[in-house]
């Protein structure tokens, strides 16, 4: 009778043996949160109130001369009576607070444009505008070109040697070709002005 040698348990490849798959895309760059401005304003307001309270505490403790502002404010508030404008003012403040909450929970705006399908590289709108300007400047008949870009639209303003509409078509084609590597090609809008035309 032939003995069967024991089989060793299957080995699970360690982390150093696991092959990674295809590279994943880099996180999409985003701009500042929409509520940044309000957060800064609120922070400054809270800081000012804190400084005022510290100052009044020092006055009440005899460390500083003067009158406590908060005490005077409380005395004035005691004499306040209901007014007709309180209701619309309260509605406006409530709507403002609701709008701030909505702004605070909105996601950060996407800013840059992805290069290729895997989105390993991102270009800022200013870099895209530079590519478009360079492409437009290389078209025959273009003397000078300027460009601006967003995630959706690239606008090109070109000074040309003639009013030939074919120049604008050539600029559009050149710019679209230069941006063909983007994952989502923005719309290209071209405006041409012939030299001497100051309109």
Quick synopsis:
The chain has 199 residues and is an alpha+beta fold. It is built from 5 helices and 5 strands; from the N terminus they run H-H-H-E-E-H-E-E-H-E. The protein is 41% helix and 15% strand.
Give keywords:
alpha+beta; Alpha-Beta Plaits; three-stranded mixed sheet; 41% helix
Overall structural domain count: 2
Q: Going across the major beta sheet, what is the strand order?
A: 3-4-5
* SSE order, one letter for each helix or strand: HHHEEHEEHE
pLDDT averaged over residues? 80
> Count the strands?
5
CATH H-level superfamily of the largest domain: Cation efflux protein, cytoplasmic domain
Globular, elongated, flat, extended or rod-shaped: what is the shape?
Answer: elongated
InterPro entries: DUF6286
Pfam families: DUF6286
Region (Disordered): 1-30
Protein name: DUF6286 domain-containing protein
Provide structural commentary.
Residues 20-30 have a biased composition (Low complexity). Keywords: Membrane, Transmembrane, Transmembrane helix. This protein is α+β, with helices and mostly antiparallel strands and 199 residues long. The chain folds into two domains: 36-105, no CATH class; 113-194, Cation efflux protein, cytoplasmic domain (Alpha-Beta Plaits), CATH 3.30.70. It has helices at 36-60, 69-78, 86-105, 125-137, 165-178, and strands at residues 113-115, 121-123, 142-149, 153-160, 187-194. It has a three-stranded mixed sheet. Helix 4 packs across helix 5 (165-178). The longest helix has 25 residues, at 36-60. The protein is elongated, with a radius of gyration of 32 Å. It starts with 35 loop residues before the first helix and ends in a 5-residue tail after the last strand.
